[in-house]
Amino acid sequence: MTALECCAGIDRRRFVALSIGSTIAAPFSVMLAACATLATRMVVPVNGVLTLPLAEHPELRQPGGVLRLLPEGATEPVYVLVQEARHYVALSPVCTHLGCTVDVQGGRLVCPCHGSTYDREGRVLRGPAERPLARYETQLTEDDRLVINLGVRK
Q1: What is the distance between the alpha carbons of residues 48 and 71, in angstroms, rounded to a whole number?
Q2: At 62, which CATH number?
Q3: I want to staple 117 with a disulfide (CB 3.0 to 4.6 A). Which of 21, 83, 126, 130 is the partner?
Q4: Which residue range(s) make up the domain with 62?
């Protein structure tokens, strides 16, 4: 069935209304789907340091896990990625090209604005970005708490 055959049963006014409605709704449905895949958790830093008990964050218990945090008072989130057992990376998701927020897509982070692509360590895989994502210092304590120092960017 062609597009003309499909629309043959509706008048011009209805066709325009449906076209405009779907054009307006499409970007919002994509944004909602993206938001649903990576929920943001609000956290309270103490003296610029986040302490995350692994027992309270199941996303951090297995390789490939991702946690999106928004520290109280901050304007940008922090992504915590599990590389392998007991190896964590905390990144700023702000693309170093023009400041858009990158999306986590499996083994890479992709900028939706211009396509810059980073690996899970924040290194540039594809431009136009030329610099890696900012990384925060992380440490895993003996009692399984991930400590992220927001004041120390690598």
Answers
A1: 9
A2: 2.102.10.10
A3: 126
A4: 40-153
